[in-house]
Specification:
homotrimer, 5-stranded mixed beta sheet
Protein backbone atom coordinates (compact mmCIF):
# COMPACT_ATOMS: atom_id res chain seq x y z
CA UNK A 1 0.00 0.00 0.00
CA UNK A 2 1.23 3.51 -0.77
CA UNK A 3 0.94 6.11 1.93
CA UNK A 4 1.92 9.67 1.16
CA UNK A 5 0.78 12.08 3.80
CA UNK A 6 1.65 10.13 6.92
CA UNK A 7 4.91 9.88 8.84
CA UNK A 8 6.81 6.58 8.90
CA UNK A 9 5.22 5.56 12.15
CA UNK A 10 1.67 6.38 11.12
CA UNK A 11 -0.72 3.83 9.68
CA UNK A 12 -3.54 4.78 7.33
CA UNK A 13 -6.48 2.86 8.86
CA UNK A 14 -8.65 2.89 5.74
CA UNK A 15 -5.81 1.60 3.56
CA UNK A 16 -4.87 -1.01 6.16
CA UNK A 17 -8.45 -2.29 6.31
CA UNK A 18 -8.64 -2.45 2.53
CA UNK A 19 -5.33 -4.33 2.36
CA UNK A 20 -6.85 -6.91 4.72
CA UNK A 21 -9.96 -7.18 2.55
CA UNK A 22 -12.13 -5.83 5.35
CA UNK A 23 -14.72 -3.08 5.52
CA UNK A 24 -16.25 -1.56 8.61
CA UNK A 25 -19.77 -2.91 9.16
CA UNK A 26 -22.70 -0.65 9.87
CA UNK A 27 -23.27 -0.05 13.57
CA UNK A 28 -26.58 -1.35 14.94
CA UNK A 29 -28.11 0.07 18.13
CA UNK A 30 -29.62 -2.07 20.86
CA UNK A 31 -32.72 -0.43 22.37
CA UNK A 32 -31.60 -1.15 25.93
CA UNK A 33 -28.12 0.39 25.96
CA UNK A 34 -25.66 2.48 23.98
CA UNK A 35 -22.95 1.14 21.72
CA UNK A 36 -20.56 3.55 23.36
CA UNK A 37 -20.47 6.27 25.98
CA UNK A 38 -17.92 9.08 26.02
CA UNK A 39 -16.79 11.38 28.78
CA UNK A 40 -15.98 15.06 28.56
CA UNK A 41 -12.29 14.15 28.69
CA UNK A 42 -12.52 12.08 25.48
CA UNK A 43 -12.48 8.65 27.11
CA UNK A 44 -14.81 6.21 25.35
CA UNK A 45 -16.20 3.00 26.79
CA UNK A 46 -17.52 0.60 24.16
CA UNK A 47 -20.17 -2.02 24.78
CA UNK A 48 -19.07 -5.62 24.49
CA UNK A 49 -19.11 -6.69 20.85
CA UNK A 50 -20.10 -10.09 19.50
CA UNK A 51 -18.91 -11.45 16.12
CA UNK A 52 -22.11 -10.58 14.29
CA UNK A 53 -22.09 -10.66 10.49
CA UNK A 54 -25.22 -9.06 9.04
CA UNK A 55 -27.01 -9.48 12.35
CA UNK A 56 -26.20 -13.18 12.78
CA UNK A 57 -23.54 -15.12 14.67
CA UNK A 58 -21.69 -17.31 12.13
CA UNK A 59 -20.66 -19.72 14.88
CA UNK A 60 -21.93 -20.52 18.35
CA UNK A 61 -20.67 -22.77 21.13
CA UNK A 62 -17.79 -23.20 23.55
CA UNK A 63 -14.18 -23.04 22.44
CA UNK A 64 -12.38 -26.28 23.21
CA UNK A 65 -15.64 -28.15 22.71
CA UNK A 66 -17.52 -27.65 19.40
CA UNK A 67 -15.48 -24.57 18.37
CA UNK A 68 -11.76 -24.95 17.62
CA UNK A 69 -9.09 -22.31 18.21
CA UNK A 70 -8.78 -21.24 14.55
CA UNK A 71 -12.53 -20.69 14.29
CA UNK A 72 -12.52 -18.79 17.58
CA UNK A 73 -9.70 -16.60 16.26
CA UNK A 74 -11.73 -15.78 13.15
CA UNK A 75 -14.68 -14.88 15.38
CA UNK A 76 -12.38 -12.70 17.52
CA UNK A 77 -11.28 -10.85 14.38
CA UNK A 78 -14.91 -10.23 13.49
CA UNK A 79 -15.90 -9.06 16.99
CA UNK A 80 -12.90 -6.71 16.97
CA UNK A 81 -13.85 -5.38 13.53
CA UNK A 82 -17.31 -4.65 14.88
CA UNK A 83 -15.70 -2.86 17.83
CA UNK A 84 -13.60 -0.79 15.42
CA UNK A 85 -16.79 0.29 13.65
CA UNK A 86 -18.30 1.41 16.94
CA UNK A 87 -15.06 3.11 17.94
CA UNK A 88 -14.90 4.99 14.63
CA UNK A 89 -18.48 6.13 15.20
CA UNK A 90 -17.60 7.28 18.73
CA UNK A 91 -14.37 9.08 17.81
CA UNK A 92 -15.82 10.62 14.65
CA UNK A 93 -13.49 8.70 12.34
CA UNK A 94 -11.25 5.64 12.47
CA UNK A 95 -8.28 7.99 12.05
CA UNK A 96 -9.09 9.69 15.35
CA UNK A 97 -9.32 6.47 17.40
CA UNK A 98 -6.74 5.34 19.97
CA UNK A 99 -7.15 2.02 21.78
CA UNK A 100 -6.39 1.84 25.50
CA UNK A 101 -7.55 -1.55 26.76
CA UNK A 102 -9.08 -4.77 25.43
CA UNK A 103 -11.01 -7.18 27.61
CA UNK A 104 -11.44 -10.42 25.65
CA UNK A 105 -13.95 -13.05 26.69
CA UNK A 106 -13.76 -16.60 25.38
CA UNK A 107 -16.64 -19.02 26.00
CA UNK A 108 -14.54 -21.86 27.37
CA UNK A 109 -15.14 -25.58 27.69
CA UNK A 110 -13.82 -27.05 30.97
CA UNK A 111 -10.03 -27.22 30.85
CA UNK A 112 -9.61 -24.90 27.86
CA UNK A 113 -6.60 -22.70 28.65
CA UNK A 114 -5.62 -21.03 25.37
CA UNK A 115 -7.65 -17.83 25.74
CA UNK A 116 -4.50 -15.82 24.95
CA UNK A 117 -4.12 -17.34 21.51
CA UNK A 118 -7.75 -16.53 20.70
CA UNK A 119 -7.41 -12.96 21.98
CA UNK A 120 -4.18 -12.50 19.99
CA UNK A 121 -6.20 -12.46 16.76
CA UNK A 122 -8.08 -9.39 17.93
CA UNK A 123 -4.94 -7.68 19.22
CA UNK A 124 -3.25 -8.23 15.88
CA UNK A 125 -6.13 -6.65 13.97
CA UNK A 126 -6.08 -3.52 16.14
CA UNK A 127 -2.37 -2.98 15.46
CA UNK A 128 -2.67 -3.83 11.76
CA UNK A 129 -5.40 -1.24 11.30
CA UNK A 130 -4.36 1.53 13.70
CA UNK A 131 -0.62 1.03 14.06
CA UNK A 132 0.82 2.54 17.23
CA UNK A 133 -2.62 3.96 18.07
CA UNK A 134 -3.97 0.41 18.09
CA UNK A 135 -1.58 -0.92 20.71
CA UNK A 136 -3.32 -1.71 23.98
CA UNK A 137 -3.25 -3.28 27.40
CA UNK A 138 -5.21 -6.53 27.48
CA UNK A 139 -6.92 -9.05 29.69
CA UNK A 140 -8.15 -12.41 28.36
CA UNK A 141 -10.45 -14.66 30.34
CA UNK A 142 -12.58 -17.73 29.82
CA UNK A 143 -16.25 -17.38 30.67
CA UNK A 144 -19.08 -19.83 31.36
CA UNK A 145 -21.61 -18.15 29.09
CA UNK A 146 -22.02 -15.41 26.52
CA UNK A 147 -25.15 -13.86 24.97
CA UNK A 148 -26.68 -16.10 22.28
CA UNK A 149 -23.98 -18.68 22.96
CA UNK A 150 -21.40 -16.57 21.11
CA UNK A 151 -17.90 -18.10 21.30
CA UNK A 152 -16.23 -14.71 21.96
CA UNK A 153 -16.94 -11.14 23.05
CA UNK A 154 -14.65 -8.08 23.00
CA UNK A 155 -14.87 -4.95 25.15
CA UNK A 156 -12.66 -1.93 24.40
CA UNK A 157 -11.76 1.22 26.28
CA UNK A 158 -10.64 3.85 23.75
CA UNK A 159 -10.01 7.55 23.50
CA UNK A 160 -9.93 10.28 20.92
CA UNK A 161 -6.38 10.95 19.72
CA UNK A 162 -4.83 14.15 21.07
CA UNK B 1 -45.25 12.44 38.45
CA UNK B 2 -45.10 16.24 38.21
CA UNK B 3 -41.75 17.81 37.60
CA UNK B 4 -41.47 21.59 37.58
CA UNK B 5 -37.89 22.70 37.66
CA UNK B 6 -36.40 20.37 35.09
CA UNK B 7 -36.27 20.59 31.32
CA UNK B 8 -38.28 18.13 29.24
CA UNK B 9 -35.33 15.86 28.81
CA UNK B 10 -34.37 15.81 32.49
CA UNK B 11 -35.52 13.13 34.91
CA UNK B 12 -35.93 13.76 38.62
CA UNK B 13 -34.15 10.71 40.10
CA UNK B 14 -35.80 10.90 43.53
CA UNK B 15 -39.28 11.12 42.02
CA UNK B 16 -38.49 8.34 39.56
CA UNK B 17 -37.32 6.06 42.37
CA UNK B 18 -40.44 6.83 44.41
CA UNK B 19 -42.66 6.13 41.41
CA UNK B 20 -41.02 2.69 41.17
CA UNK B 21 -41.61 2.09 44.89
CA UNK B 22 -37.88 1.94 45.51
CA UNK B 23 -35.62 3.64 48.03
CA UNK B 24 -31.86 3.79 48.00
CA UNK B 25 -30.42 1.35 50.54
CA UNK B 26 -27.76 2.34 53.04
CA UNK B 27 -24.24 1.78 51.76
CA UNK B 28 -22.19 -0.76 53.73
CA UNK B 29 -18.38 -0.73 53.63
CA UNK B 30 -16.29 -3.87 53.28
CA UNK B 31 -13.14 -3.67 55.41
CA UNK B 32 -10.92 -4.91 52.59
CA UNK B 33 -11.78 -2.46 49.83
CA UNK B 34 -13.67 0.70 48.98
CA UNK B 35 -17.21 0.86 47.60
CA UNK B 36 -15.94 3.38 45.07
CA UNK B 37 -12.79 5.20 44.07
CA UNK B 38 -12.81 8.56 42.28
CA UNK B 39 -10.13 10.28 40.24
CA UNK B 40 -9.28 13.95 40.17
CA UNK B 41 -11.08 14.18 36.82
CA UNK B 42 -14.40 13.08 38.32
CA UNK B 43 -14.35 9.52 36.99
CA UNK B 44 -15.72 7.03 39.52
CA UNK B 45 -15.14 3.29 39.55
CA UNK B 46 -17.66 1.37 41.66
CA UNK B 47 -17.01 -1.99 43.24
CA UNK B 48 -19.03 -4.90 41.95
CA UNK B 49 -22.44 -4.95 43.66
CA UNK B 50 -24.40 -8.02 44.69
CA UNK B 51 -28.21 -8.03 45.16
CA UNK B 52 -28.05 -7.73 48.95
CA UNK B 53 -31.23 -6.80 50.81
CA UNK B 54 -30.53 -5.90 54.44
CA UNK B 55 -27.19 -7.68 54.27
CA UNK B 56 -28.54 -10.94 52.85
CA UNK B 57 -28.82 -12.43 49.35
CA UNK B 58 -32.52 -13.21 48.73
CA UNK B 59 -31.56 -15.84 46.14
CA UNK B 60 -28.44 -17.85 45.39
CA UNK B 61 -27.50 -20.25 42.60
CA UNK B 62 -26.88 -20.41 38.88
CA UNK B 63 -29.25 -18.89 36.35
CA UNK B 64 -30.57 -21.54 33.98
CA UNK B 65 -30.30 -24.10 36.77
CA UNK B 66 -32.08 -23.33 40.09
CA UNK B 67 -32.64 -19.64 39.29
CA UNK B 68 -34.97 -18.67 36.41
CA UNK B 69 -34.62 -15.59 34.22
CA UNK B 70 -37.37 -13.57 35.92
CA UNK B 71 -35.83 -14.12 39.33
CA UNK B 72 -32.41 -13.23 37.95
CA UNK B 73 -33.85 -10.03 36.50
CA UNK B 74 -35.27 -9.09 39.89
CA UNK B 75 -31.86 -9.71 41.44
CA UNK B 76 -30.25 -7.59 38.70
CA UNK B 77 -32.62 -4.74 39.58
CA UNK B 78 -31.61 -5.03 43.22
CA UNK B 79 -27.86 -5.15 42.49
CA UNK B 80 -28.26 -2.09 40.26
CA UNK B 81 -30.23 -0.27 42.97
CA UNK B 82 -27.38 -0.99 45.37
CA UNK B 83 -24.95 0.37 42.76
CA UNK B 84 -27.06 3.53 42.46
CA UNK B 85 -26.78 4.01 46.21
CA UNK B 86 -23.00 3.74 46.02
CA UNK B 87 -22.91 6.02 42.99
CA UNK B 88 -25.02 8.65 44.76
CA UNK B 89 -22.63 8.47 47.69
CA UNK B 90 -19.65 8.88 45.35
CA UNK B 91 -21.09 11.75 43.29
CA UNK B 92 -22.53 13.56 46.31
CA UNK B 93 -26.13 13.08 45.21
CA UNK B 94 -28.10 10.90 42.81
CA UNK B 95 -28.83 14.06 40.79
CA UNK B 96 -25.12 14.52 40.08
CA UNK B 97 -24.52 10.97 38.80
CA UNK B 98 -23.89 10.04 35.17
CA UNK B 99 -23.45 6.40 34.16
CA UNK B 100 -20.76 5.50 31.63
CA UNK B 101 -20.50 1.70 31.53
CA UNK B 102 -22.13 -1.36 33.06
CA UNK B 103 -20.41 -4.72 33.30
CA UNK B 104 -23.06 -7.30 34.18
CA UNK B 105 -22.11 -10.76 35.44
CA UNK B 106 -24.60 -13.62 35.44
CA UNK B 107 -23.77 -16.86 37.25
CA UNK B 108 -24.59 -19.20 34.39
CA UNK B 109 -25.44 -22.87 34.21
CA UNK B 110 -23.83 -24.69 31.25
CA UNK B 111 -25.60 -23.66 28.04
CA UNK B 112 -27.38 -20.63 29.49
CA UNK B 113 -27.18 -17.91 26.85
CA UNK B 114 -29.68 -15.23 27.87
CA UNK B 115 -27.34 -12.99 29.86
CA UNK B 116 -28.57 -9.99 27.84
CA UNK B 117 -32.16 -10.39 29.00
CA UNK B 118 -31.00 -10.53 32.62
CA UNK B 119 -28.75 -7.48 32.20
CA UNK B 120 -31.58 -5.56 30.48
CA UNK B 121 -33.40 -5.31 33.83
CA UNK B 122 -30.48 -3.36 35.28
CA UNK B 123 -30.11 -1.19 32.19
CA UNK B 124 -33.79 -0.32 32.32
CA UNK B 125 -33.57 0.77 35.96
CA UNK B 126 -30.64 3.09 35.27
CA UNK B 127 -32.56 4.87 32.52
CA UNK B 128 -35.82 4.96 34.50
CA UNK B 129 -34.08 6.64 37.41
CA UNK B 130 -31.51 8.87 35.71
CA UNK B 131 -32.97 9.44 32.25
CA UNK B 132 -30.38 10.45 29.66
CA UNK B 133 -27.72 10.50 32.40
CA UNK B 134 -28.44 6.83 33.05
CA UNK B 135 -27.76 5.64 29.51
CA UNK B 136 -24.62 3.55 29.27
CA UNK B 137 -22.41 1.24 27.28
CA UNK B 138 -22.72 -2.34 28.48
CA UNK B 139 -21.10 -5.75 28.49
CA UNK B 140 -22.93 -8.84 29.74
CA UNK B 141 -21.17 -12.12 30.42
CA UNK B 142 -21.84 -15.45 32.07
CA UNK B 143 -19.47 -16.44 34.84
CA UNK B 144 -18.61 -19.71 36.57
CA UNK B 145 -18.81 -18.35 40.09
CA UNK B 146 -19.75 -15.29 42.11
CA UNK B 147 -19.15 -14.41 45.77
CA UNK B 148 -21.55 -16.25 48.11
CA UNK B 149 -23.09 -17.96 45.11
CA UNK B 150 -24.93 -14.78 44.11
CA UNK B 151 -26.80 -15.18 40.80
CA UNK B 152 -25.71 -11.74 39.51
CA UNK B 153 -23.17 -8.96 40.08
CA UNK B 154 -23.04 -5.44 38.58
CA UNK B 155 -20.01 -3.19 38.12
CA UNK B 156 -20.44 0.44 37.04
CA UNK B 157 -18.09 3.13 35.77
CA UNK B 158 -19.67 6.52 36.42
CA UNK B 159 -18.77 10.17 36.53
CA UNK B 160 -19.94 13.38 38.12
CA UNK B 161 -22.18 15.37 35.76
CA UNK B 162 -20.52 18.38 34.21
CA UNK C 1 10.38 0.22 59.85
CA UNK C 2 11.61 3.78 60.25
CA UNK C 3 10.18 6.43 57.97
CA UNK C 4 11.51 9.98 58.19
CA UNK C 5 10.36 12.06 55.28
CA UNK C 6 6.73 11.01 55.07
CA UNK C 7 3.68 12.22 56.92
CA UNK C 8 1.89 9.91 59.35
CA UNK C 9 -0.58 8.83 56.74
CA UNK C 10 2.00 8.10 54.07
CA UNK C 11 3.46 4.68 53.47
CA UNK C 12 6.95 4.16 52.05
CA UNK C 13 6.30 1.53 49.36
CA UNK C 14 9.88 0.32 49.10
CA UNK C 15 10.18 -0.12 52.86
CA UNK C 16 6.78 -1.80 53.03
CA UNK C 17 7.76 -4.28 50.32
CA UNK C 18 11.04 -5.03 52.08
CA UNK C 19 9.24 -5.56 55.38
CA UNK C 20 7.08 -8.16 53.63
CA UNK C 21 10.18 -9.87 52.22
CA UNK C 22 9.07 -9.03 48.67
CA UNK C 23 10.84 -7.44 45.73
CA UNK C 24 9.29 -6.19 42.52
CA UNK C 25 9.89 -8.66 39.69
CA UNK C 26 11.21 -7.59 36.33
CA UNK C 27 8.46 -6.72 33.85
CA UNK C 28 8.29 -8.95 30.77
CA UNK C 29 6.62 -7.76 27.56
CA UNK C 30 4.29 -9.90 25.49
CA UNK C 31 4.79 -9.33 21.76
CA UNK C 32 1.05 -9.08 21.10
CA UNK C 33 0.04 -6.36 23.56
CA UNK C 34 1.32 -3.80 26.04
CA UNK C 35 1.72 -4.36 29.76
CA UNK C 36 0.03 -1.01 30.28
CA UNK C 37 -1.44 1.88 28.36
CA UNK C 38 -1.69 5.42 29.71
CA UNK C 39 -3.87 8.32 28.67
CA UNK C 40 -2.94 11.98 28.49
CA UNK C 41 -4.86 12.50 31.74
CA UNK C 42 -2.61 10.09 33.66
CA UNK C 43 -5.05 7.19 33.78
CA UNK C 44 -3.31 3.84 33.37
CA UNK C 45 -4.91 0.56 32.33
CA UNK C 46 -2.82 -2.50 33.17
CA UNK C 47 -3.02 -5.79 31.36
CA UNK C 48 -4.31 -8.75 33.35
CA UNK C 49 -1.49 -10.25 35.40
CA UNK C 50 -0.94 -13.92 36.13
CA UNK C 51 1.03 -15.20 39.16
CA UNK C 52 4.21 -15.86 37.18
CA UNK C 53 7.42 -16.45 39.11
CA UNK C 54 10.47 -16.34 36.83
CA UNK C 55 8.26 -16.95 33.81
CA UNK C 56 6.44 -19.97 35.23
CA UNK C 57 3.12 -20.49 36.98
CA UNK C 58 3.86 -22.16 40.36
CA UNK C 59 0.35 -23.62 40.47
CA UNK C 60 -2.33 -24.34 37.88
CA UNK C 61 -5.91 -25.54 38.12
CA UNK C 62 -9.32 -24.54 39.43
CA UNK C 63 -9.85 -23.19 42.93
CA UNK C 64 -12.24 -25.41 44.88
CA UNK C 65 -11.00 -28.39 42.90
CA UNK C 66 -7.22 -29.09 42.87
CA UNK C 67 -6.27 -25.66 44.27
CA UNK C 68 -7.30 -24.73 47.83
CA UNK C 69 -8.13 -21.22 49.06
CA UNK C 70 -4.82 -20.64 50.84
CA UNK C 71 -2.84 -21.57 47.74
CA UNK C 72 -5.10 -19.37 45.61
CA UNK C 73 -4.51 -16.48 48.03
CA UNK C 74 -0.75 -16.92 47.68
CA UNK C 75 -1.14 -16.87 43.90
CA UNK C 76 -3.29 -13.73 44.17
CA UNK C 77 -0.51 -12.05 46.16
CA UNK C 78 1.96 -12.97 43.44
CA UNK C 79 -0.26 -11.76 40.59
CA UNK C 80 -0.80 -8.50 42.48
CA UNK C 81 2.95 -8.12 43.06
CA UNK C 82 3.47 -8.54 39.32
CA UNK C 83 0.80 -5.89 38.73
CA UNK C 84 2.60 -3.54 41.12
CA UNK C 85 5.77 -3.99 39.08
CA UNK C 86 3.93 -3.06 35.90
CA UNK C 87 2.23 -0.15 37.66
CA UNK C 88 5.55 1.17 38.94
CA UNK C 89 6.91 0.98 35.41
CA UNK C 90 3.87 2.85 34.08
CA UNK C 91 3.83 5.57 36.75
CA UNK C 92 7.61 6.02 36.72
CA UNK C 93 8.02 4.79 40.30
CA UNK C 94 6.06 2.82 42.87
CA UNK C 95 5.87 6.02 44.94
CA UNK C 96 3.90 7.74 42.18
CA UNK C 97 1.28 4.98 41.81
CA UNK C 98 -2.35 5.26 42.97
CA UNK C 99 -4.71 2.32 42.57
CA UNK C 100 -8.28 2.96 41.40
CA UNK C 101 -9.88 -0.42 40.70
CA UNK C 102 -9.07 -4.12 40.91
CA UNK C 103 -10.84 -6.76 38.85
CA UNK C 104 -9.95 -10.15 40.32
CA UNK C 105 -10.57 -13.36 38.39
CA UNK C 106 -10.59 -16.74 40.14
CA UNK C 107 -10.65 -19.94 38.08
CA UNK C 108 -13.55 -21.58 39.88
CA UNK C 109 -14.71 -25.17 40.18
CA UNK C 110 -18.50 -25.58 40.03
CA UNK C 111 -20.05 -24.34 43.27
CA UNK C 112 -16.96 -22.47 44.50
CA UNK C 113 -18.24 -19.22 46.02
CA UNK C 114 -15.33 -17.78 48.03
CA UNK C 115 -13.84 -15.53 45.34
CA UNK C 116 -13.89 -12.63 47.82
CA UNK C 117 -11.56 -14.37 50.25
CA UNK C 118 -9.10 -15.08 47.43
CA UNK C 119 -9.27 -11.50 46.15
CA UNK C 120 -8.78 -10.14 49.68
CA UNK C 121 -5.16 -11.32 49.61
CA UNK C 122 -4.46 -9.03 46.67
CA UNK C 123 -6.38 -6.13 48.19
CA UNK C 124 -4.38 -6.48 51.40
CA UNK C 125 -1.06 -6.35 49.55
CA UNK C 126 -1.99 -3.16 47.70
CA UNK C 127 -2.81 -1.39 50.97
CA UNK C 128 0.22 -2.80 52.79
CA UNK C 129 2.54 -1.49 50.09
CA UNK C 130 0.89 1.78 49.04
CA UNK C 131 -1.17 2.75 52.10
CA UNK C 132 -4.02 5.12 51.31
CA UNK C 133 -2.85 5.27 47.68
CA UNK C 134 -3.38 1.51 47.46
CA UNK C 135 -7.04 1.54 48.49
CA UNK C 136 -9.35 0.62 45.61
CA UNK C 137 -12.77 -0.32 44.38
CA UNK C 138 -12.99 -4.01 43.56
CA UNK C 139 -14.91 -6.66 41.70
CA UNK C 140 -14.25 -10.37 42.21
CA UNK C 141 -15.65 -13.03 39.91
CA UNK C 142 -15.23 -16.72 39.21
CA UNK C 143 -14.31 -17.64 35.65
CA UNK C 144 -14.45 -20.83 33.60
CA UNK C 145 -10.94 -20.54 32.19
CA UNK C 146 -7.73 -18.54 32.43
CA UNK C 147 -4.63 -18.50 30.22
CA UNK C 148 -2.35 -21.50 30.85
CA UNK C 149 -4.85 -22.77 33.42
CA UNK C 150 -3.72 -20.14 35.93
CA UNK C 151 -5.81 -20.22 39.13
CA UNK C 152 -6.06 -16.40 39.31
CA UNK C 153 -5.62 -13.23 37.25
CA UNK C 154 -5.63 -9.58 38.37
CA UNK C 155 -6.44 -6.48 36.30
CA UNK C 156 -5.82 -2.99 37.73
CA UNK C 157 -6.86 0.50 36.73
CA UNK C 158 -4.39 2.99 38.22
CA UNK C 159 -3.32 6.58 37.91
CA UNK C 160 -0.32 8.76 38.56
CA UNK C 161 -0.60 10.52 41.92
CA UNK C 162 -1.45 14.20 41.70
Amino acid sequence: MTVHSLSDTETDPAAALAALGLTLPEVVEDPKYLDWRASADGRIHLSGQLPYVDGKLPVTGAVGDTVDVDTARAMMVRATLNALAVGADAAGALERLRIVHMLAFVLSAPGFADQSRVADAGSELLVQVLGEHGRHARTAIGVAGLPRNSPVEVQLVCEVRR
